[in-house]
Design brief:
Bound molecules: 5-O-phosphono-beta-D-ribofuranosylamine
Radius of gyration: 16 Å
Largest sheet: 7 strands, mixed
Structural class: alpha/beta
């Protein structure tokens, strides 16, 4: 069984979507760890409620944070899924899990990397945007794209309504993409 760790800073809706897909038998994996840089984040609360065995807050003001993440995750997971994780992943964590760290980003990468990507697409007057799952590399949202879903920008959209529809797509795309990559052997137990 593939062991997944989820790292997040926010509400944890993507964590919940992954957990729900596992519970429904649609995703053949287990969530073995959830880590957040925010002490009272929704993701930590949802993870405790879901009974994830290893739920941890790690303070990113700690200079050794990447090494602490390696310590917390080595031997505990085969794949790291970033889901609303507002921190940059660097070595040694990056090098400890080569091509085993993925992220979900709310734009059609390579367009609009970085913060508030849906607001950037909205302000630019795009007709559509979406979400992307990609490998994590040294850059910010620059790693190879794995899967994308397009979301039209409607005439009466606001940044908020657009973001809500993108997040719906994220919650659909993330578990399904993980299952596809587990089924085809791209991600296998370490
Ligand atoms: C998602 O919209 C994701 O694209 C972005 O942060 C949000 C996280 O939401 N990077 P949640 O914490 O999974 O609810």
């Amino acid at each position: 069984m593939l062991r997944i760790a989820v790292l997040g800073s926010g509400e944890g809706s993507n964590f919940q979507a992954i957990a729900n897909a596992i519970a429904a038998g649609e995703l053949c994996a287990e969530i073995t760890a959830v880590i957040s840089d925010r002490v009272n984040s929704g993701i930590l609360q949802k993870a405790r409620k879901a009974g994830v065995p290893h739920v941890l807050h790690l303070d990113h003001r700690d200079a050794e944070i990447q090494a602490r993440l390696v310590g917390a995750l080595t031997g505990r997971c085969d794949l790291i899924c970033l889901a609303g994780y507002m921190r940059i992943v660097r070595p040694p964590l990056l090098t400890a899990f080569p091509r085993r760290i993925v992220n979900i980003h709310p734009s059609l990468l390579p367009a609009y990397p970085g913060k508030d990507a849906w607001k950037q697409a909205f302000a630019a007057g795009e007709k559509s945007t979406g979400c992307s799952i990609h490998y994590v590399d040294e850059g910010i949202d620059t790693g190879q794209v794995i899967a994308q879903a397009e979301v039209p920008i409607l005439p009466d959209d606001t940044p908020k309504s657009l973001h809500a529809r993108i997040q719906q797509q994220e919650r659909f795309l993330y578990p399904r993409t993980l299952q596809r990559l587990i089924a085809d052997g791209t991600f296998s137990p370490l």
